[in-house]
Amino acid sequence: MADSTSSIPVGTTGAGGGNMLRITGLNTGLDVDAMVKKMLTADQTKIDNAKKQQQLIQWRQEAYQSIIKDVKDLQNAYFDVTNNANYLLSSGSYNNMTATSSDATIVSAKASSTATAGSYKVKVSKLASAATVEGTDKVQTKDNKDALSSTKLSDLDINPGTNITLILDYNDGSFETSKPLTVNFNVSSSSTIQDLADAVKNQTNGAATAKFNELTGKFSIQTAATGENSTLNIKTGSNTSALKALRFSTNLVDPSTGATNTEDSSKNTVYAVGSGSDAQVQIKEPGSSTYSDAVTKSSNNFTVNGITYNLVDTTSDDDAISISVTQDTSKVHDLVSNFIDKYNNLVGEIQDKLKEKKDFDYSPLTDTQKSSMSDTDITNWETKAKEGILANDDNLEQLLSDLTSAFNSPVQDSSGKSVSSLYFGSIGSNAIGIDTSDDYSQGGKLSITDDQQFTDAITNHIDDIMKLFTTTSDSTDSTTKFNQSGIFQRINDIITNNVGMIGTTLNSGVLTKYANLQDDYTASGSGGTGTLPDQIYQQQLLITTLTDRMNDDQTKYYNQFTQLETAMETLNAQQSTLSMYLS
Question: Is residue 189 domain-shared with residue 113, that is, in the same domain?
């Protein structure tokens, strides 16, 4: 900020001199700095008011961000698909049945909500197996040593540069015709038996796998699918040295025809044909005095009457594995109850902020005010000044209204009928015993109004509970989708609409965008939408403008006083000369 040029010497700055060094008032006797400071009071007040307004917006932003964090906490706790223990949208979270095996190393089990409680007995006479083709003998190196998985192919007399081509015709049991898969492996000087096995898995996307058993010394290829309808046929082109080195034989009998295969119609050498086998098991269910007829399954993992069995080993004729299935309502009860607690804490926090009254005797402090206060006094003052910062906020009012509506609106199917025989509420025999508060000041908090009613619903109507809470809709119409979605699906959609998807922080969610996204860049020609960062940005532009204006006024006032000093200096000189003449 420039000063007027005058004969006034330069010295230390005055109170309002900024970065300029001045000695003023030598001729007039006036305290120029003090006078300029008072003359700038109106300018400084405008700047202070603009800064106060900016501080209020920043506090509002911080309050929003705190609520967004708590909404995100609820979202992460109950609507994260990776959180298996508390995921409210999974049918597995509402499974009130538990299965316990007497020996899980032979047969393990899981019970779904449709299973019958009681004691089960399981006998396993045969496990399902994959279609497997195995070498007929141990693989040995060219110097007659037993091979390992780390043995180089060159040590088996498979020269570097050799291209091993395998044509795998396999059927996983679900197709009438086999599906050919081709594996091409170029042997290098460092290639090992394990590298070839890895290539089989990688190039077939896991449909077939290969392994080298270091105990038996044999190399094998097998299908991922099990069951007697699963087959595998290994062929190779003109270069058969690799598979011969791995001890595969061309003179194997086709188990389906009994014929010896040596060549197919495409002149490919047929090395082996293998087929899988089915599992055979007998089950005695609760209330039955006898075992079922032999159950044949293509997989060792299968489901019968709501029980998923996993077969690991066979049992003896006189032995059986016991599976105990019990009903446990506490898991579902605790999951929903814990959600209600966390949900109510969030609703209470928002409701408190919406009802908080503003004390207009407390406003943001100026730098000058802070300079005369202790840190404790500043903190206490600003705590009072922040009260009511979110009072009657439209976005938060809408959020609470949407959440309340999610519980109070019936869940319907495409024809407009209820998807469940149960309904949300506490009145009537089909109510689930959970309701929203009828006290408006509570903001729609939830409570288990009848714990026995809720427990009975979990015990006897868990499928209807799932429909009421987790039903999904594929409608693209927002109203229809809301009506056809289960209560917790609605909550998930409302939360996502306000704070974005799980794992995102800067997104187009209503609350997140309003609190965090600046899209006003007026200086570069882009207008905004009135978000809090937009408002902070606009206030900063105003503060800069007002500060520049005050600096201009300060320069103008000092120039005026400089002119007065110059005039007084001239007058004093004239008076001195006149006095000299008169004397």
Answer: no
